[in-house]
Amino acid sequence: MKNVKLLTSPAPHVRTQDSTRKVMIDVIIALVPAVIAGTFFFGLYALLLSIIGMVSAELVELFIMRVLRKDKSFLPNGSAAVTGLLLALNLSVATPWWVLIIGVVFAIAIVKHAFGGLGQNIFNPALAARVFLLVSFPTAMTTWYRPIASFTGWYTDAQTTATPLAILKLQGFSKVMADTNYLDLAFGNIGGCIGETSAVLLFIGFLYLVFRKRVKIVIPVTYIGTVLLIASIFYTVNPERFGSPLFHMLAGGLMLGALFMATDMVTSPMTIKGQFIFGLGCGIVTMLIRYFGGYPEGVSLSILLMNSLVPIIDRHTQPRIFGRRKG
Questions:
Q1: Is 307:122 a contact under the CB 8 Å cutoff?
Q2: Which residue positions does FMN phosphoryl threonine occur at (predicted)?
């Protein structure tokens, strides 16, 4: 028998054909239905913001990597484009394009690369940038327009309005349902952020990610399930003040946050038990802010808060290594 030459190398030994670029392309594809819906309901400016967000994010990251970090071999992997697109979808169509670029710079330079780059950031860059812009430009970030329902329209053709969650907090559930219905809430014919209004199209995009095995299903299921459970309890107490469970699932940024933001691979727990705790915490904090906070929506803040707890969650939910004592 001839001598067999065995090659050894450090772990891990599992090989995959996947890459960061392939994963990010799948996320962008999954967000296309939401972009189409945002363009239809809020006009061409919504599409323009989406493109500006993606392009500017890639340019900022390219500058940081090639010039500041002097990595001449760096090639864009799509992660910055996903951040820029998600940030754009989290904005009102009333947001000026230059405000979006400020948010992109904050997301890529401060939230992502100041912590070491892809895989090292603690907080979701798009959500952290959204909160930064909300504090810095509150008027632009909280001005909402009625849907135009035209791919060729422009946001200035529309009238300003309040979001369903804001109407619920200020005027009650009966007023909300007098102005809209569950079908409008499901398909996006309501005021709100560019990419958050169409729950149905967001779910279709999420199903694509599930098919491609790109997401952690435990987190969105637990997150949305917790919201439905809490909303059901409070609805029995005071329907007029708290609103129905279906309303809370379809209104606001819950679907966008639960399906595309909370499932971020970098800023969410690694273990199944940890993902359950993460989704549970997001759901509880979201509803506490919606019911008792001064701001009508709590999705962004709840996910960022749970992002900060991920290291602790991972530490206390990691399985015991075989052969070692617990603790």
A1: yes
A2: 163
Q: What does the pLDDT look like over 32-89, one tens digit per residue?
A: 999 999 999 998 999 999 999 999 999 999 999 999 989 888 888 999 999 999 999 9
Tokens of 255: 């679907």
C-alpha to C-alpha distance for 202 and 192, rounded to whole angstroms: 14
Structure tokens at 201: 């199209």
Give Dmax over CA atoms of the chain in angstroms.
85
The two three-digit tokens of residue 180, written as one number: 């809209």
Q: Which two tokens stand for residue 266?
A: 């970098």
* 183 SS3 class: helix
Least Cα distance to 250 among 171, 170, 177 occurs for 177
- Residue 261 Cα distances to 77, 88, 274, angstroms: 19, 13, 16
Could you tell me where the DSSP H helices lie in 20-72?
A: 20-42, 44-63
- Residues 154 and 144 sit within 8 Å (Cβ to Cβ): no
Give the predicted TM-score (pTM) of the model.
Answer: 0.90
Whose tokens are 């759901």? That residue is 283
Provide the H-helix boundaries in the chain: 20-42, 44-63, 79-89, 97-105, 125-136, 138-141, 164-171, 173-179, 182-187, 199-211, 218-237, 239-242, 245-250, 254-256, 272-292, 299-317
Q: Find the length of the chain.
A: 327
CA atoms within 13 A on the CB side of 61: 27
Could you tell me the two tokens for 298?
């709590």
Q: Are the C-beta atoms of 145 and 162 separated by less than 8 Å?
A: no
Residue 126 · residue 90 · CB < 8 Å = yes
Position 75 scores a pLDDT of 87
Burial zone of 55 (CB within 10 Å; 0-12 exposed, 13-18 middle, 19+ buried)? middle
Which residues, other chains included, contact 91 with Cβ-Cβ below 8 Å and sequence gap of 6+?
49, 99, 100, 103, 130, 133, 141, 193, 194
